[in-house]
Amino acid sequence: MHLVIVGNGVAGVTAAMDARAADPRAQITLISGESEYFFSRTALMYAYMDVMQRRDLEPYERKVFREQRLTLLRDWVVDLDAGTRELRLAGGATVSYDKLLLATGSRGRRAPWERDLEGVVRFVSLQDLDACERLTPGTRRAVVAGGGLIGVELVECLMHHRVPVTFLVREPSYWPAALSVEEGDLVAAHIRAQGVDLRLGTEVKSMEGDGRVTGVTTTAGETIACQMVGVTIGVEPNVEWLRTVKTPPELNRGVVTDQAFRTSLPDVFAAGDVAEVEGRIEPLWYAAKRQGEAVARAMMGEPVEYAPPTYYNSAKFFHLEWTCAGETKGPGRFRKLPGREASVRVIERDGLAVGFSMLGTRWNHRVLVKWVEERRRVDEVMGRLSEAQYDVEFGKVAL
Amino acid sequence: MIRDRLYHDLTNRGITGWIVAALLVWFYIALYFTESLTPWAQKVGLSSKWDLYGVLYTVVILVGGIAMIRKYGHNRYQVVRTGVVMFVQVVFAFSIPMMLKALHQPEYYLSYFWPLKFDYMNPEYLFAQPWPFVVYTLAASLVIVPLLGALIGKRWYCSWVCGCGGLANTMGEPWRHLSDKSSAAWKFEKVSIYSVFGISLLLTGLLFYSWFTKSKAPEVVQFQTWYGLIVGSILSGAVGTGLYPLGGTRVWCRFFCPMAALLGITQKAGKRFHIRVKEDMCISCGLCSKYCEMGIDVRAYAQRNESFTRASCVGCGICSEVCPRGVLRLENQSGLVQISGGR
């Protein structure tokens, strides 16, 4: 059997390794145009900040791929024919498959005001990192538009290189998708304390310049001179390339699959950020890993009914760490911790704790998730919060 | 920008890194094998080159320690640990020996133990000392060191007390990431460190045998000289510290130190100290592996949700500090408690 995987991100590589463990004889090929070896997209910012080198981004030693007999092809897939079970590559070669996994991940969304000028960057791929590194030395000011997690990472990198940054965030409070207004204020204050010119409730209206970008004009009517513009308004499934192939699978926002990751094409599966599993997209590292494990079982013919577990996530805004579990929105109990940039928030419904949002200290999300799943009462968990703390030794924070 | 590039060069085996390494090696050769530092010591009013070395060593640990505390001030473990490192260096590794010397007493370094301080278990030397020192040395080397290693891990020594570790975790901080993370380096480490440990045990055994039989074969004398030269001077000094800018800060501690070998064994056998991995939260970014001075591929454990104890881990806690998702935590606990536990 020849198992071909398009995309060597965490979903694709996890699937390849698990498939190899399940079937020592299968021929397994990973195809990626982005990089020859699997790397951690999550660590792009550390490469940009020069605290890691490119090779450090690779989670496995290269010899692992030889030992596991995973064939790596560095090329872009340009055509898919489900009838003849063949892929065509940009380099001209064709690859035939018995089973195919589409794991092409996410890509940065394009903004309506965006123009293709030199100096406009995203921060999702290795090529984006190349562009950022190339552009940084000639940049006296940068504008980053979009206040999600990638946005704040890009801001941190630029500040690290002593490039002044204006950070434009559409929403009136910081990251309302997950943070309450009080939490948003805490994070915004922290970001400003790093010297970032953070502007809430402000969007880009248009870009200035031709050839290289020279500035942006905001919805407030101000023109900010800059030589780099980071577009970080979110990611979307990387499906555009599938719209023009001979036999496209059914696409909605992502590649549509059932709970066993089967697409509309025979023996073609999709997993990771690119997959829309029963209408749901999970653009998270751990979810992609989980889906990679599950899709490997599905491709090996095991019955799989994938359902996402209780949500949890974590992030870091400059030096401010954040952990959440369960739901993040809705009424709840918020407490700012005395004397430090930290807070706890328990989201409450009918007296039950349905979610946690913890800022500035460390938490064991497993305990929080368990409380949500066990439908514990808010009054109870508020008294037991210290059981879920995960601070360093000598550093346990008084709640 | 130039400052950044220079720092990158110095800390990533660039030309400045090589120059600093060459200077450090040159310094150690001059210190161990020549008297060229003696006039410098006398110029500043010190009686020997070793006193000068002690002063320099202490100053460097203090300066590096302050930088360390400034960098990791938000992390109590790092602040407490670095504070202890500085305290031990100033008091036990510098002031007490200097005072003893001023009082014309033997210079005892009470923070160094056999098998790192090899002579302290040489019966010829040991039993010529006053009894409190004999008791202290025997109790420390044979009971306290392994017991604490089993209870709280080798870190109590390697990253809290030891001067070699102290230098690595203060002045050496900018080079900690240069340790070799490959599985080949791990294989080499297992062979080299237990070889040195075995040789140190053998030599100690021979010295005791010679002492009991009151006859020291010339081969044993020669063995002792060579051990002192290769392990004491070349590996721990010139290679261990001189190669900071090329091989990272723990080349000696990881590959050669017999004390680290002994402590590593007790750390593994004690089954208490471990690095706990928070389940399914690792994003494989690799900062933990990159900044592990012992070259442990921490990410490999974290990304497969495996809490672990490695013999080489000195418990410096930097993996936990740099982890952007708070996945790693140093713990002393019998048996790995189920992570989804609660109580």
How would you describe this structure to a colleague?
The complex is a heterodimer of chains A (399) and B (343). Chain A has 399 residues and is an alpha/beta fold. Chain A has helices at residues 10-22, 44-48, 63-67, 126-135, 149-160, 181-193, 285-299, 365-373, 378-384; strands spanning 2-6, 27-32, 70-74, 77-81, 86-89, 94-96, 99-102, 106-108, 120-121, 142-145, 165-169, 197-200, 204-208, 215-218, 223-225, 228-231, 235-237, 255-257, 268-270, 275-277, 312-317, 320-326, 332-336, 343-349, 352-359. Chain A has three domains: 2-107 and 235-299, FAD/NAD(P)-binding domain (3-Layer(bba) Sandwich), CATH 3.50.50; 120-231, FAD/NAD(P)-binding domain (3-Layer(bba) Sandwich); 312-388, FAD/NAD-linked reductase, C-terminal dimerisation domain (Enolase-like, domain 1, 2-Layer Sandwich). Helices cover 22% and strands 28% of the residues of chain A. In chain A, 47% of the residues are buried. The longest helix of chain B has 31 residues, at 183-213. A two-stranded antiparallel ribbon of chain B has the order 1-2. Chain B contains 17 helices and two strands. In chain B, helix 1 packs across helix 2 (15-33), helix 2 (15-33) runs antiparallel to helix 11 and helix 7 (131-152) crosses helix 14 (258-270). Chain B has helices at residues 2-11, 15-33, 38-43, 49-71, 76-102, 123-126, 131-152, 155-158, 163-168, 183-213, 218-239, 244-247, 251-255, 258-270, 287-290, 298-302, 318-322, and strands at 273-277, 328-332. Classes of the chains: A alpha/beta (399), B mainly alpha (343). Chains A and B meet through helix 7, strand 21 and helix 8 of A and helix 5, helix 15 and strand 2 of B.
Main sheet of chain B, how many strands, which sense, barrel? 2 strands, antiparallel
- Summed up, the helix count of chain B is 17
Count the beta strands of chain B.
2
Which architecture of the largest domain in chain A does the CATH hierarchy give at level 2? Answer: 3-Layer(bba) Sandwich
Distance between the termini of chain A: 56 Å
- Which regions of chain B have little confidence, pLDDT < 50, spanning 5+ residues? 337-343
Global outline of chain A: globular
Main β-sheet description of chain A: 5 strands, parallel
What is the CATH homology-level superfamily of the largest domain in chain A? FAD/NAD(P)-binding domain
Which structural class best describes the helix and strand composition of chain A?
Answer: alpha/beta
* CATH top level label of the largest domain in chain A: Alpha Beta
SS field, number of helical segments of chain A = 9
Q: Give start-end ranges of low-pLDDT stretches of chain A.
A: none
Total domain units of chain A: 3
Which oligomeric state applies? heterodimer
Most residues in contact: chain pair: A-B, 43 and 40 residues
Radius of gyration of chain B: 21 Å
Helix-strand makeup class of chain B: mainly alpha
Distance between the termini of chain B: 52 Å
- The count of domains of chain B is 2
Shape of chain B: globular
